[in-house]
Write a structure and sequence with these properties.
With 294 residues, this protein is an all-alpha fold. It folds into three domains: 121 residues, no CATH class; 49 residues, no CATH class; 111 residues, no CATH class. The protein has 13 helices and two strands. β1 and β2 form a beta hairpin. α1 crosses α4. The protein is elongated. The N and C termini lie far apart (57 Å).
């Protein structure tokens, strides 16, 4: 079944499979990390542009707030004065949003690539995928992410490939193991699975995914906060930004227990990249701007 992101997800899936086969030594976790870094590097110019636009908006905020107080009862005059501020300072109010709107379809597409590898990485048709899912569902548990379950099953039972014809070939069996973690599984909080004699080795190590996800999200969010807000915790803007420091990690924690660990690896790799990216921006872009203002 097609979705609106197929035109982005299909080439990204082929690219991830290329990395897996040719650059990552057939290691799925390494492939996701390399894939994430490359995508982040491609999007870096947009990210820098977004940050610069947001920084400019922060600089003119005192002027904007003063105009809003002065002309709060005259909307026409208010809009005129705001436009003057934007034009004088060469600020685009939507400048910080437009790059983000470009990135969002890519982020959604990456989710489909990781959770539907048969379609996006291996290029299987809907009929072929259904045949594989129907076969595996008769002999094993498929769960919510059926395409991942199919790959996981045939990795363990490669001899059964002949029973589904030539739909899936041995060289297409993507192994989802990484540093002892099974990236096809979803982290859980069920004590029976975490500490069960037969399941502890599979699920307990996966707890690293939510933990590292929350830590990297928090650090990345904190670093990306405008300095003017970090130094001023009072007021609506400060309260909102401080709330965002916790909303992001909480959302990461919740989704980490809903999605396969492979998605969590993508998030962690992305946030680690963003941490170093933000350190670079703060040191080389923001510092230069502060010097120029002085």
């Amino acid at each position: 079944m097609a979705n609106i992101f197929d035109f982005i997800a299909l080439p990204l899936g082929k690219f991830l499979f290329f990395i897996y086969n040719n650059l990552a030594f057939l290691n799925y976790g390494v492939a996701i990390i390399m894939f994430t870094v490359i995508i982040k590097l491609v999007l870096l110019p947009l990210t820098v542009k977004q940050y610069r636009s947001t920084s400019k908006m922060q600089e003119v905020q005192p002027q904007i707030q003063e105009i809003q107080k002065r002309y709060k009862n005259d909307k026409e005059k208010l809009n005129q004065e705001l436009m003057k501020v934007y034009q004088t300072n060469k600020v685009n109010p939507a400048g910080g949003c437009l790059p983000l709107l470009v990135q969002m379809p890519i982020l959604f597409s990456l989710f489909y690539v990781i959770t539907q590898p048969l379609k996006y990485m291996l290029g299987k048709s809907a009929q072929q995928i259904q045949t594989l899912v129907d076969f595996v569902s008769k002999v094993s548990e498929t769960g919510f992410y059926k395409q991942i379950a199919v790959l996981e099953y045939f990795n363990k039972n490669a001899g059964d490939l002949g029973k589904v014809g030539d739909i899936l070939k041995p060289n297409e069996l993507i192994s989802m193991k990484f540093l002892g973690l099974n990236l096809s599984l979803t982290p859980v909080l069920d004590p029976k699975l975490l500490f069960g004699a037969d399941t502890m080795g599979k699920f307990l190590p996966l707890m690293l995914i939510p933990i590292l996800g929350v830590i990297t999200t928090y650090i990345s969010t904190k670093l990306s906060m405008p300095r003017t807000v970090q130094s001023n915790t009072q007021g609506a803007a400060g309260s909102m930004q401080n709330s965002m420091m916790y909303i992001g990690p909480i959302m990461t924690l919740i989704f980490s227990f809903q999605l396969p660990a492979g998605v969590g690896i993508y998030w962690i790799a992305g946030y680690i990249f963003q941490i170093f990216q933000q350190l670079y921006i703060n040191k080389h872009i923001l510092k230069k701007k502060e010097v120029a203002i002085k």
